[in-house]
Amino acid sequence: MCIFRALARRSRGAVMSQLDEDSFEVLLTNCADEPIQFPGAIQPHGLLFTLTEPELIILQVSANVQTVLGHAPEEVPGKALDCVLGAGWAEVIKSASAHDSFADMPRLLMSVNGVEFEAMLHRSQDVLVLELEIQDKAAQAVSYSERTGNMGRMLRQLHAASDLHTLYEVSVREIQKMTGYDRVLIYRFEEEGHGQVIAEASAPSMELFNGLFFPASDIPEQARELYRRNWLRIIPDADYTPVPLVPQLRPDTHQQLDLSFSTLRSVSPIHCQYMKNMGVLSSMSVSLIQGGKLWGLISCGHRTPLYVSHELRSACQAIGQVVSLQISAMEALEISRQREEKVLALKQLHHAMATSDDNVFDGLAQQPQQLMDLVGATGVAIIDDRKTQCFGNCPTPADIRALHTWMMASGNPVYASHHLSSAFPPAEAYQSIASGVLAMSLPKPVDNGVIWFRPEVKESVRWSGDPDKPLNLEGSEQGLRLRPRTSFEIWKVEMTGIATQWSHGDVYAANDLRRSALENDLARQVRKEQQAVRARDELVAVVSHDLRNPMTVISMLCGMMQKSFSSDGPHTSRRISTAIDTMQQAASRMNVLLEDLLDTSKIEAGRYTITPQPLEVSQIFEEAYTLLAPLAM
């Protein structure tokens, strides 16, 4: 949503009162550069090994291998896996590692030195990563069998949801029942990275966030990218001490290990503090993906440490995937419905353009109300070369021309915005009548197009915390760092310069109208070309006929003169006789040229067949000499 661009500028302004421009840019760089996928540590509820293949030689190990299995971490790297887990379990791991993909691998439960683990495998940067998640019955583990008894019923409810709101509500309610988290909500990302809570199921004593907006700084860009790549992340206890890897750098590459797909990956301390500020100590997030992009999150939180088993997490991940598919399907159906609503109006406007005497834009100008109703606009401007026609509530023609020039420079044939002044500041002068614009234009050489307008609609947006101060700052050895905000108090902000957002159907209608205008304009040009060809053919036929008659007369007179001079016998002047012969040849040549002229018109019309014939070249030279000789005298 474009409203967030304005808030981003306001937030930036709040920070800029404390820092100069250069320092602020450094701050943003420090935040964006935080290596959250390379933490060099894990959470303490499991062990991690990096292994070579196929030998299963240990390259790195988490430091808690000593407290869990009794091995000094600095002595483990370089050893074979069976030295730590035993030959039997090492062979099991080797067999499991033969799979190209571990997504469908059956559960791998194992016991080493009396400690129960669930093993998980994945590959990262050409090494095998083995994670052993501790199965601690005393860690408030959620029983899978108790929680998933109604899994089939829940999936049926998700599939039966008739609209998005019902889908969201069923999802959060059932996941809360299944996992036992105090709060489960669905968080949808907006275009600029900010997000809104659109569904929530919470314990009675929990603070409610449903309907609130959260600034983009709460989930920075690199964190969103990890959510996009990895379906699920869990933090059983945010008050943990990270367990480092030994050694910190991979001995084969001397680089940090990429833990993007590690379940045990240690998270940013900023995020852990953020959780505590929200009043929760454990969390789980399931990504909602649409078209390969991060659409939103199913976010779970609990006030005390809570461990959710891997099997139950897998069930939640499956639910997230089902919800993602349902969201995609329902949004596709909604887009299809919006398009169907436009079909009749588009047909009528297509007919108006096709039957216009002059051009397609004159045809549209005959249907201004229908043109505005097509996309729910309150004003529309039609630009055709130097002429601007306005209908309804529109800015001045000069403002429209300036706006059109700016949009043409962007190179987008269709442009839509419901916060025009955020992208085109001069529009602030007329935002009361034109905060939203939808425009389409045809290719040059002349300026043309249609611009629809929507007026400003003032609205109050509820934020979790002050949107003007989403960033707290702290110093560190590396420089200035962002710190999670401590207040989630509801703030109401009245937004100005915002229009009702253009729907997918509106943008589709603009694209379809443009396509129809192009087709009609091209058909009109083809008809004009055909008329010009017909007129030329008629002219050629008339000229040929009018010239052929006098040439026939000339040929006849030359023949008569030749006979008359021939009767005089040898007394006839040879010069006169030769001249008469030349005149006859010239007349004959002119008739041939007239025939060729008619043949050219047949060739262009595709009604002429060319058959090559042999010709004596000397004859051509002789004719040329005879016809051109008089000119040389």
Automatic annotation (TrEMBL):
Top EC class of this enzyme: transferase
Recorded superkingdom: Bacteria
Span of domain Phytochrome chromophore attachment site: 163-321
GO biological process: detection of visible light; regulation of DNA-templated transcription
Protein name: histidine kinase
GO MF annotation, one: ATP binding
Keywords: ATP-binding, Chromophore, Kinase, Nucleotide-binding, Phosphoprotein, Photoreceptor protein, Receptor, Sensory transduction, Transferase, Two-component regulatory system
Organism: Pseudomonas syringae pv. coriandricola
EC number of this enzyme: 2.7.13.3
Catalytic activity reported: ATP + protein L-histidine = ADP + protein N-phospho-L-histidine
